[in-house]
Amino acid sequence: MIKIHLSMLPAVLALIGSTMSFNVNAEGVTPVTTGAVVRGVNAPGPVGAPGTSAGKTCDFSREEVNQAGNMTGASVNCQANGTTAQVLVGLPATFNAYCFTKAPPKSARLLKDPVSGNANHCDLSGITPKDATGQFGGAVWR
């Protein structure tokens, strides 16, 4: 065990801070910058074969936006370095289809935001609903 005298604590913390770098945002959560990002969709009609077109796009038009028109927190699933199959784990069963893209979506902020029953839940913000819809593209059956 290393003992540090309290008077030395500021100097020790400064030394540690100068030798280590962190990629952390204001909330203290590291942004997700790799892997797949998935958005659940409820597509109408009979469910098709998994991975085939569901005939619907990921619609972000009902998401809350700030004065600049950027979303303030849309629900998606993500996992650093995760594949689409890995990221789908935890997506609520109520979604019969999904859209996906690579992390991070252009001009967006993507943060892990686990919820009960879904460790892969993430928060997507800083992007317009129109841009998000375009980047996620068309939905495929689950």
Plain-language structure description:
By secondary structure, this protein is of the alpha+beta class. It has one domain. It is 17% helix and 25% strand. It has helices at residues 9-19, 84-88, 129-136, and strands at 36-41, 53-57, 74-78, 97-102, 109-112, 121-125, 138-141. The chain has a seven-stranded antiparallel beta sheet. Residues 12-24 have low confidence and may be disordered.
Report the end-to-end length measured between terminal Cα atoms. Answer: 52 Å
Largest sheet: 7 strands, antiparallel
Number of helices: 3
The domain count comes to: 1
Q: Unreliable segments (pLDDT under 50, ≥5 consecutive)?
A: 12-24
**What percent of the residues sit in helical stretches (DSSP H or I)?**
10-25%
Range of strand content: 15-25%
Along the chain, the helix and strand elements come as HEEEHEEEHE
| Beta strands, count | 7
Strand order of the largest sheet: 2-7-4-1-3-6-5
Average residue-wise pLDDT: 86
Q: Please give the radius of gyration in angstroms.
A: 19 Å
Q: What structural class do the secondary elements suggest?
A: alpha+beta
Q: What would the principal axes of the Cα set say about the shape?
A: globular
Topology:
Blueprint: H1 9-19, E1 36-41, E2 53-57, E3 74-78, H2 84-88, E4 97-102, E5 109-112, E6 121-125, H3 129-136, E7 138-141
Antiparallel strand pairs: 1-3, 1-4, 2-7, 3-6, 4-7, 5-6
Structure characteristics:
142 residues; 7-stranded antiparallel beta sheet; globular; 25% strand; 3 helices; alpha+beta; single chain
Brief summary of the model shown:
The chain is an alpha+beta fold. It has 3 helices and 7 strands. Strands 2-7-4-1-3-6-5 form a 7-stranded antiparallel beta sheet.
